[in-house]
Amino acid sequence: MEFVLGVLNPHAAEIGSVVIHWYGVIIAAGILAALQLSTKEAKKKGLEEDTIIDMALWAIPIGLLGARLYYVLFELVIICKIQDKSLRFGMAALRFMGD
User: Fold this and answer.
1) Residue ranges of domains in the chain
2) Distance CA 60, CA 38 (A)
3) Contact 35, 25 (CB under 8 A)
4) 3-state helix, strand, coil in the chain (%, to 5)
5) Which long-range contacts (CB under 8 A, 24 or more apart) does 28-36 make?
6) Could you give the count of Cα atoms lying within 13 Å of 52 in the half-sphere of its Cβ?
7) Which of 79, 88, 81, 80 is closest to 99 using CA atoms?
8) Residue 20 in 3-state DSSP?
9) SS3 45
10) pLDDT at position 99, please?
11) Is the pTM of this model over 0.90?
12) Which is it for strands 18-21 and 11-15: parallel, antiparallel or unpaired?
């Protein structure tokens, strides 16, 4: 019995010149799920939802910037070859992608 897995298109959607990748969709779904669960737990513990949302508004961008900085620092040889493209979010991977 042979099992063949097809190749998944890495682009979830293309809207004009903007390409949405599947890994971005999965990361966004994870962030939304974590935010939903966190606000539910906050209610159970007697905390306000706004506290969790305010914290997420700081933590998510800082986490993404930290992942990009980690990628840039540890892939310096490759980045020197492609120069400024590595600093744009749409052009290069983040470190948690496993590349």
Assistant:
1) 11-97
2) 14
3) no
4) 65, 10, 25
5) 31/56, 31/60
6) 18
7) 79
8) strand
9) helix
10) 45
11) no
12) antiparallel
Residue of 35, 23, 37 lying closest to 90 (CA atoms): 23
4-57 pLDDT per residue, tens: 667 778 888 899 998 888 888 999 999 999 999 999 999 999 999 999 999 999
**Backbone Cα Rg of the chain:** 18
Instruction: Please name the residues in contact with 11: beta carbons below 8 A apart, sequence gap of 6 or more.
Output: 19, 20, 21, 22
Does residue 2 carry a pLDDT above 90?
A: no
Structure tokens at 58: 């700081």
Distance between CA 73 and CA 2 in Å, rounded?
A: 43
Here the contacts of 67-73 (C-beta below 8 Å, separation 24 or greater) are: 67/94, 67/95, 67/96, 68/94, 68/95, 70/95, 71/95
Question: How many angstroms separate the CA atoms of 85 and 96, rounded?
Answer: 18
